[in-house]
Design a protein that fits this description.
The structure is a homodimer.
Chain A lengths: L2 H21 L13 H5 L14 H9 L21 H13 L10 H17 L10 E4 L2 H15 L14 E6 L4 H9 L7 E4 L10 H13 L3 E8 L11 H11 L2 E5 L19 H4 L2 E4 L1 H4 L7 E5 L3 H7 L9 H5 L18 H35 L4 E3 L7 E6 L6 H18 L5 E5 L2 E7 L7 H15 L2
Parallel strand pairs in A: 2-3, 2-4, 4-5, 5-6
Antiparallel strand pairs in A: 1-7, 6-7, 8-9, 9-11, 10-11
Chain lengths: ~475, ~475
């Protein structure tokens, strides 16, 4: 493709995206495709001759778009927000256009240094402790960030090598029933094994991890010869945005000499607002590592997770390998960061550009306004639900997620759960909005996560109307 | 950013990228930035108020670009090519614009089904065995693909759980000294440990893995109680594009019941050309998994590695976890693929769009032409070097990489190595071209990897002139 062709087609794509965002509210939020529909619409074999670009946008509209669920729709309330904004899209476009590999400082210094700078900017914005400055890196996802934290913690804990008595001790990871599933996956990946993932009790009401039970488990496991490697506390769980008591958990970790990772994938970015700075409690004193996702609630498109280390040495010891073909003077000098040693893959996109573009465009002020709009709408929705005796809303909704359930007067719990799931499926199938669900204490709850930049008060009110229609019929 | 602002700024960015590619040949290939230069140019703190987009491209040109090494430069010959082409950039732009999460079929069916289709298209283009059809997925990198293969193999091998005798057997991985460093990293990540990575001998001339030594190691380890989990054979090693004898290695693996992963990160895509189909030898009969990177030599920007499984069950058993908040009817039905279970992270970009766009634009014909141009130029360069008695060129250069060294008449090996490294540093510092290096049999070799779509014969000739200038002074 010549530069002139790129100019022509590129501008068509820009217009296509702008048109898409302008028209998105008129589309059904959830795709109505059945399994196999998109596959069937696509040619079975690749073209022998190039087809040019002219037909691509038409094929996209005709064959692909019917299978797309619109995550940027103002009435998309499923899972957590995954915002794709103009400045972020353009930052990512610049990254694709430059096409540099940022695996090492030497392979394109700006890719490393801009990343160091925007990680520090984000630490500034969130008022994170000083120990994290200069120690942040972009990961593709919170899953990978937690895996890197676990690998670092395992290294610190001795890596499961046989002790002086020759006994190979099993290593243990501590989570709660509310911790994200990626932690159990990380334990499997890292060879810790699901059987060595210890599940700490939660408070039945707040769903927060119980530090006393953590203490008891750590004591019990150490006595049995296990090597406790890491505790993962969560600020804003995926299911209900529950908040683990990080200071109390941190105190227990310190006493037992165990690595504390704090996973604030969704909620951590709320700390751009001073009134949300409480999410950082305990980080300065206790956290060995911390992660949060600008690609969820901070207007940056996937993938962009930030992981900070209090001390980068255990991570570098766990993950560094330097083959001859990557040796270079800058690495040898020790004066530079090579981010390949901060992650699982070797290759790296220049992802810092999109975060730079987002922070420049919105400024601290714009980012705060975005968080406040989402959490304010969530408060308003929760109040509406609480005022209706046919529903029960979880009283704790500190961020942009509201969890609630229709009480279905007269139905058993199983019947009520089935009725709620049916209503959820009808709502999503209608295309008017998209919700997801969770299950707490045996009850299915609807999850309504608010946070798209296009979501306004009217979308919340319309959603609540539709929910009531389908759950009181 | 409103859609109208996005149209305006988006078109500026498209023009910026087109201008960049038009002017790239006039830039020094390697950045001249010193450590800290880019950091110092960037504001220390994030802006309080949004700065808009107008200043961003100016700041990019002023503060960031001096720190960029130009991987798309026609005289970039370092590492391996990492091509960023128009259709790929635009496919990725569409992915950013849509901003959908493809973690499960249910979260945006088209993201899954287009990926299944383009993985099959690629298998078609490369004439891969039928067992891989429907079993391919995009990974971020070859490192991650090899880790997923290893985790699947470990699961298949029994996961290191204690056997009936209660003995916890160590699991072993087999590579050669020429295998990519990501395999040792994968062993560390997966808890196999560097100590259980067994290094198989290579032929001192071809650098290909010795199947007889592999056989001996497997026999020895099994006798010692270890559980051999995986053998990784490489087609086109990173150092010199050596090719392991996959059929002979596969025969050994079959006899020992061990998983064979074939890593063809760089060279596998050459099979778009019938004359390169020999790179697939042994895959049909022996390979449990196979990976190659369209983001290296197939005109698709990073990240885009394809991983195929002969049988997806071990991978799914190793990596699937389904928490309540991700349950959905499509997943429960078993009728769909959920690619989150084919990788380490949970979240996924809609990466299939860029591969779709690339294959449509070039067609099989265009992709073949690209491979033939690169390998043809490499042959021509190797012939030039071979004709000059002051140099030694590795006789095997089956793809686009040529490895060679100045003989430095009269110098000891150490002195010659130092002189070669000095010449390499001078060449790279000149900005005229970029080479990397490796070390084989105690000798430093220069690596010249040809494969950027903008690289023409004249760039090769100019590079050879400059190399001779710096190595015969």
């Amino acid at each position: 493709m010549t530069p002139d062709e790129f100019r022509r087609y590129g501008k068509q794509v820009i217009d296509w995206i702008a048109d898409y965002h302008e028209s998105i509210a008129s589309r059904p939020v959830m795709s109505r495709a059945e399994p196999g529909d998109v596959l069937a619409a696509l040619p079975e074999h690749p073209p022998e001759k190039g087809e040019g670009f002219d037909g691509l946008l038409a094929a996209l509209d005709r064959d692909i778009m019917p299978g797309v669920t619109h995550w940027q729709h103002p009435s998309f309330f499923g899972y957590f927000p995954s915002n794709s904004t103009g400045p972020s899209i353009l930052g990512d476009l610049l990254s694709s256009g430059l096409g540099v590999q940022g695996m090492m400082w030497a392979t394109s210094p700006a890719a490393t240094e801009l990343e160091t700078r925007v990680a520090d900017w984000t630490a500034d914005l969130l008022d994170l402790p000083a120990k994290f400055r200069g120690n942040g890196a972009i990961q593709d996802s919170a899953s990978s960030a937690c895996l890197v934290a676990l690998l670092s913690a395992l290294h610190q804990a001795g890596g499961g090598a046989p002790g002086p008595d020759g006994i190979d001790r099993r290593r243990t990871l501590y989570i709660s029933s509310q911790t994200h599933s990626s932690l159990e996956k990380a334990a499997r990946v890292a060879g810790v094994g699901s059987a060595n993932v210890r599940v700490v009790d939660v408070d039945p009401v707040t769903l927060a991890m119980d530090p006393a039970h953590l203490d008891a488990l750590l004591t019990e496991d150490a006595a049995a010869g296990a090597v406790p490697a890491m505790v993962c506390a969560t600020v804003g769980t995926t299911s209900t945005t529950a908040v683990d008591p990080v200071p109390a958990i941190g105190e227990v970790c310190r006493r037992h000499g165990v690595w504390l990772h704090v996973d604030a994938a969704y909620a951590g970015v709320a700390a751009v607002c001073p009134e949300f700075r409480w999410v950082n409690e305990g980080l300065a004193e206790y956290a060995s590592s911390y992660s949060t996702n600008p690609h969820k609630w901070m207007l940056t498109n996937f993938d962009c997770t930030l992981l900070w280390m209090a001390d980068r040495a255990p991570m570098l010891n766990a993950l560094s390998i330097l083959p001859e073909y990557l040796r270079n003077n800058a690495t040898t000098s020790g004066d530079v960061i090579d981010y390949r040693d901060w992650q699982i893959p070797l290759g790296r996109r220049f992802r810092a550009l999109k975060l730079w573009s987002v922070i420049r465009w919105y400024g601290a002020e714009g980012l705060r306004e975005h968080i406040r709009t989402g959490s304010g709408l969530a408060d308003e929705l929760a109040a509406l639900i609480a005022a209706d005796p046919r529903y029960e809303v979880r009283p704790d909704h500190p961020f942009g997620l509201v969890c609630f359930r229709p009480l279905w007067d007269g139905l058993t719990t199983d019947e009520a759960n089935a009725a709620t799931m049916d209503a959820l499926n009808r709502l999503n199938a209608s295309g008017d909005l998209l919700l997801s669900h969770t299950k707490i204490g045996g009850h299915v709850l609807l999850r309504m996560a608010i946070g798209a930049p296009s979501t306004e008060r009217r979308h919340i009110l319309a959603a609540w109307d539709r929910i009531r229609e389908e759950t009181t019929a």
